[in-house]
Specification:
Largest sheet: 9 strands, antiparallel
Distance between the termini: 90 Å
Number of helices: 2
CATH topology: Jelly Rolls
Helix content: 25-40%
Radius of gyration: 21 Å
Structural class: alpha+beta
Number of domains: 1
Strand content: 35-45%
Mean pLDDT: 82
Low-confidence stretches: 4-24, 163-177
CATH architecture: Sandwich
Length: about 180
């Protein structure tokens, strides 16, 4: 009899904890891109600025506002959790290695990315979008063979490629003149 009461008490306590956690996450929020204080994050290229708009992305599900400059590239990587991207403005190229997919996307487009699938994201024209993470945010960069590498190494390769891309764009502009 005492054992059953203990089990019922534990079950009720568990229900209270789960219910209070659920209610804590049910907070309304409003974020306006124009007034957000966006900033850099060391695991991203310097051309990326962001700000959480709902939740804490390092602890669990969250929504993050992100802005990237034209030509900015987040090199091949994967995340543990699933994520959704909602493009607000600009144009980008979304590439998925596992699905041999490369798509141009723009304002109003939506992308769902399954966790642990390698992808890269490049803003073709300065872009703003929301990233909805379905778990704590992490990023695992990979090399051309799919082996995980340090963020510094992935970003070093990106910063070396950026000047070459700018030179190419300058040459195209001069050719059109």
């Amino acid at each position: 009899m005492i054992r059953m009461r203990t089990q019922v008490a534990i079950l009720l306590l568990l229900l209270v904890v789960v219910a209070s956690a659920a209610f804590a996450q049910d907070e309304n929020s409003l974020a306006k891109i124009a007034t957000l204080k966006l900033g850099p994050l060391p695991v991203f290229p310097t051309c990326v600025t962001l700000a959480p708009t709902h939740g804490d992305p390092f602890k669990g599900p969250a929504t993050i506002a992100i802005k990237m400059t034209s030509g900015c590239n987040i090199p091949w990587h994967w995340h543990t959790a699933d994520e959704s991207l909602i493009i607000v403005s600009g144009k980008a190229k979304m590439e998925m290695k596992d699905h041999n997919m490369s798509e141009n996307i723009g304002a109003g487009d939506y992308v769902f990315l399954v966790g642990k699938h390698t992808h890269q994201f490049t803003c073709v024209a300065a872009c703003t979008f929301y990233d909805v993470t379905y778990g704590a945010f992490d990023i695992h960069y990979v090399d051309k063979d799919g082996n995980e590498i340090k963020p510094e190494d992935a970003l070093k390769a990106t910063s070396k490629a950026a000047p070459a891309a700018k030179k190419s764009a300058s040459k195209k502009a001069e050719t059109k003149k």
